[in-house]
């Protein structure tokens, strides 16, 4: 076929009108790829798109004509104007994606030829990418994989309309599988750009997490969430659960009901004495859009741009808006800031001018009667332990004098109540004290050997400063409910109270399932989403590439792609030109080729006997040899018991056969 | 070569003396008989359909009955009736013409579907049930039905489902010039047939039928057969692909053909020889619906499928 002929047939093919079932396939693909966007598209856009899809389906079903060009143009203009009004722009992620989705649906309305169908299919492929602007979770990836299958199916419906849908899906799946090696190669070797190509920080914003204030109820509300705060893997054996205090914001200022971080500390002295129990670990922190990083009491260094504040918080330079991995070194045994600045100690004693008189009285009484600090702390702990205080997720509401209300009336509280009341009492008794918020404990995933710390592990405790000993952690919750610290939340609160699923149910198989899922998620975050330039370089170095540069990567990438393409081409060629397995058939074919060279070619459907008689008639002097070869071949191939000698004889006969 | 195979060859020669120049069709008819199938002959009146049936019955030593199908025919005319006998005061079954070893159902498409299906059911079941009593048909039981081309007036064409009951459909066609000359010069065919001696016994015939079932079929041949079936199912040329029953029929007919050729195994040529007869009435082209295209479709099918 000449080129012009090919071009002509191609032109005819792409101008062909798609059949209804082909249109359905394309509508289905576009529907699937736009579906996840419905979550954030303006409602009117979702409605318009659904309407267009249904309309197009109806038109294909009834075979009615498509709407006129003028109608479409006015529709397009109106839709673009609508987007411009909704978003105040036509650019940027949200407006751009909305425009893309809307225009793709509109394109369906002028799907008249195979060429239009191809355009819609390529648009659908592009919309797949836009879905990842909004979520990069495993479910999204899986759904997009299924969507890709649907798109391929729609495309195959155009290319090979004779195939049944099952065969099409099978072929689409095979095509996806064949693309896997190339995908993997590109993923591993494609040079990563430093920093995100598209700004997509919004992923993290809706997340709940610790804030820099604490009021009654804020912690217990947080503890209702199953969401993962961070994951930790220790270099050595993990420390015991009771020592896992993940330090977050330290709260200094009390304002009646709420504890606040207050103004930044002037001092940056963070000095640890008599340290013991060093641990090294890696934290993978989920984005929370705040600048603090969590570390075990007390951190001494971390490998990301960060500093340690005067109250031993690990603070990042910037807000954590993407998942962050960092390594920390902590000392679990310590005396912190034994030489504390007087101003800071003063601040650690400050209380509101009025309010909570009963508590102030009690503290004054203790100070008078007991005198020394350690005894006062002990007395407070004893009070919590002996005087009917309970640990609950559902504490009653407190009045304006919240500490009094809690200490002397309700006596029911969550960690924030105890920490708050304890620090109040200490300050009233003249002992410098502060509230520390963060997380306590975590769930050990022994499959992946790491801890999962969830929002439900949020905790608040207190620190007091004692002369000569520095800041010491006192966790009043541990006094009331030791189980909270040693085992976790579910052991500490009554069974009737609402707890997140993950914190409540601990049946072994469910736990294992959850650990498996979380491990998978963890690896996904680490190796797929977190595969950045550093990781890529480290990985390639481990694979044996010396001095990783992007030029080298590009070369390897090209070579890899070349090898893959060559490999697949070979496989296809091999299938096209595969010789038969049966040696008798191979010999017989050789015999046929010999005859064919002299103008007596056997057609594919010609039976060997017919061929033999035709050839014998044309070549009488070779008739015996031809008949002999044919007889032996037929005997081997079609008779029930053929003489084993036959094959050898056939080989000799074919070799000896000459014209 | 054993006794029954020798007798078969003699029988073929004898039939060829009567039906001149139709050697291939005669062998196809015999193959159909040996494969325990029924035969449909479709052609214009007067080309020798009835004569072929006669001569086959005579030569194979089969008891013969002829049913002339007409539009006012009733099932009882074929199957038989129960008649009241006054002396023994009971109903006695009088078997109809269908109770014969070889039946010529002449012009089967002239009868109404009701009468047609009476015969076709008997063909399928090899038995007849009348008033609650089942009567077995004789063995061997072989039906040759003749059919006028369906474009003729006053015909009820057999539906596809009933065509499927016939293992083969053949066409006789006009004789060539030399055969026609022989026909014109010779004596009246009917007189000759009356003088013919049977060459086979029903027992011989049954032995041969058993031998057919034992003809070897190699995996390579099954590959070929399946390639043919697959082609009819995947190609856009046919309205429907061949049914599995058509595949079984093809295999049985090929075996019988191989036996007629004196072979112990089936070769692709055997399949090709019987293929037009077996699939001609089962295939319907998408381009052209006329029945006569069946054979041409079959030839195209042979050419389209590669022998593996």
What tags apply to this protein structure?
A: 659 residues, alpha+beta, 4 domains, 25 helices, elongated, B: 308 residues, alpha/beta, Helicase, Ruva Protein, domain 3, 5-stranded parallel β-sheet, two-stranded antiparallel ribbon, 48% helix
Strand order of the largest sheet of chain A: 9-12-6-2-17-16
Low-confidence stretches of chain A: 195-206
Estimate the global geometry of chain B from the Cα principal axes: globular
- Strand % of chain B is 5-15%
Structural class of chain A: alpha+beta
Ends of chain B: how far apart? 31 Å
Description:
The complex is a heterodimer of chains A (659) and B (308). Chain A has 659 residues and is α+β, with helices and mostly antiparallel strands. Chain A folds into four domains: 3-176, no CATH class; 227-508, no CATH class; 533-576; 583-656, no CATH class. Helices cover 52% and strands 15% of the residues of chain A. Chain A contains 25 helices and 19 strands. In chain A, a hairpin with a 2-residue loop joins strand 4 (253-255) and strand 5 (258-260). Chain B is of the alpha/beta class and 308 residues long. Chain B has two domains: 3-200, 3-Layer(aba) Sandwich (Rossmann fold); 215-304, Helicase, Ruva Protein, domain 3 (Orthogonal Bundle), CATH 1.10.8.80. Chain B is built from 13 helices and nine strands. Chain B has helices spanning 3-18, 23-34, 49-60, 75-79, 113-125, 160-163, 177-185, 189-195, 202-214, 219-234, 244-260, 268-279, 293-304; strands at 39-42, 64-68, 80-85, 90-95, 102-106, 127-130, 133-136, 142-147, 168-170. A five-stranded parallel beta sheet of chain B has the order 2-5-8-1-9. Chain B has a two-stranded antiparallel sheet with strand order 3-4. In chain B, strands 6-7 form a two-stranded antiparallel sheet. Chain A binds chain B through residues 162, 580, 582, 603-610, 634, 637-640, and chain B through 216, 218, 220-221, 236, 264-269, 272, 302-308.
